[in-house]
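U., I forgot to send this yesterday:
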Amino acid sequence: MAVRHLVLMRLKPGIFTPEVLEDYRQTFSSIRENLPEDVLEARVFVNVIDRPQNMTVMIEMILKSEASLPLYLQHPLHQAIGKRYNPFVEAIASFDCEVTAP
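Result:
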């Protein structure tokens, strides 16, 4: 069963620049390329409406199965981006669900 893995983060004001967005997109694209059997899709979205409760960025990944999640989480590229940006994260939430047909 494929799994949709979502991560939503709110970064501290002034941190999320176009360069940071590009870093996120490049990193998650590289993770997908490095784990092609386990990470089927990886996309990064940016919030477009400024409201106090909204997050800054959302990462959506489609994983082959639940067993793929630890492989992705422990991947050196994932660990490295966490070290770069986790100090600037004000809030984070993740959600994992089964991928279903529309």
